[in-house]
Write a structure and sequence with these properties.
By secondary structure, the protein is of the alpha+beta class. The protein contains 13 helices and twelve strands. It folds into two domains: 197 residues, Jelly Rolls, CATH 2.60.120; 108 residues, Arc Repressor Mutant, subunit A, CATH 1.10.10.60.
Length: 322
């Protein structure tokens, strides 16, 4: 008997409109959103893909919703050399099926299943020409390495019979029910569940590495929870962790950031998620969102938002209002 038949049935998280695209144009859309991949249509003679690609913020992470009827999508070593993988893609199979080949392993994803793809490794996603919809949550690779260790790399299925899988799905459903906009608490809950899952799989780092990763992981979690507090700062973080600012910075240097920059980016990501929410676009002013996300200087917020996202917050809000 197939144990998958006894697992709960999960409702779709997203919707996708399917229209016909020339395969070259569809592949370019995939590249713009996810990186360099080759797309093989189900009919090479016809050369068209029926599907769609749209983006949305989920918590503070960029996310792609990809619907397609391709034969397969591939990422090989040559593509990786031209486009190094900077993310782990948490792939949520939302509709249809997909067979994932990565790191010498084969995993069949059915609706509801999840798989953590390592974009720095070759991969094949086989659809067989059938309609499929997948949600790809883009998690910064270096950050995830420091949070969870090497166990999260090289392509990892999230076992659907693990209790933490059900909890992660529940958090994702809550996030998607709010059109991707969410609170720091939900974001932290999801990452904590993902971390708990991986830490339950393997404990292989040395004690020194564990201590270092533990401090950075604690710092990242505290920032996710407290960034919306306008009084929260890098100095407050160091005080809470009982370390000096220099020690704190040494740990953040391993992911190429400063604590202050991290706090700013989390605030900006939270603000973007709120502005991109259809509910907020109709009911909340940009200034109210900025204040709620930890900014107390609107001119600074507008400047940093445009620098980060190459669009003014008001312009983004107007787009979401139509």
């Amino acid at each position: 008997m197939n144990p998958h038949n006894y697992l709960p049935k999960f409702r779709p998280l997203a919707a996708g409109e399917s229209t016909a695209h020339p395969v070259e144009g569809f592949a370019q859309q995939v590249q713009n959103v996810c990186g360099l991949f080759a797309v093989e249509p189900k009919s090479p003679q016809h050369g068209w893909i029926k599907g769609s690609i749209k983006t949305m913020p989920v918590a503070r992470f960029d996310t792609a919703i990809v619907s397609l009827d391709a034969m397969q999508v591939t990422r090989n070593r040559k593509m990786i050399r031209h486009d190094p993988g900077e993310h782990l893609f948490l792939l949520v199979q939302d509709q249809g099926t997909c067979t994932v080949h990565q790191n010498g392993q084969t995993n069949i994803l059915r609706a509801g299943d999840m798989f953590l793809v390592d974009s720095s490794r070759s991969s094949d996603f086989v659809y067989g020409g059938n309609n499929s919809r997948q949600i790809s949550i883009h998690l910064p690779r270096q950050e995830m390495l420091h949070r969870f260790g090497e166990i999260c790399t090289n392509g990892r299925p999230i076992a659907s019979n693990d209790p933490l899988f059900v909890a992660m799905r529940a958090v994702l459903e809550k996030i998607f029910s709010e059109s991707g906009a969410t609170t720091p608490q939900l974001n932290d809950a999801f990452l904590s569940l993902l971390g708990g899952y991986f830490h339950g799989l393997e404990h292989q780092s040395s004690l020194a590495d564990k201590l270092g990763n533990s401090l950075l992981s604690q710092a990242l979690g505290i920032i996710d929870r407290r960034a919306a507090d306008p009084n929260f700062s890098a100095h407050a973080l160091a005080f809470e962790l009982n370390v000096t600012p220099r020690t704190l910075q040494r740990h953040f240097g391993t992911i190429g950031e400063t604590a202050s920059k991290r706090i700013l980016n989390v605030r900006l990501d939270l603000a973007k998620a709120q502005i991109s929410s259809h509910r907020a676009a109709h009911n909340t002013s940009v200034s109210d969102i900025a204040y709620a996300c930890g900014f107390n200087d609107l001119s600074y917020f507008y400047k940093k938002f445009r620098e980060r996202f190459d669009v003014a917050p008001g312009e983004l809000r107007n787009r979401m209002s139509h």
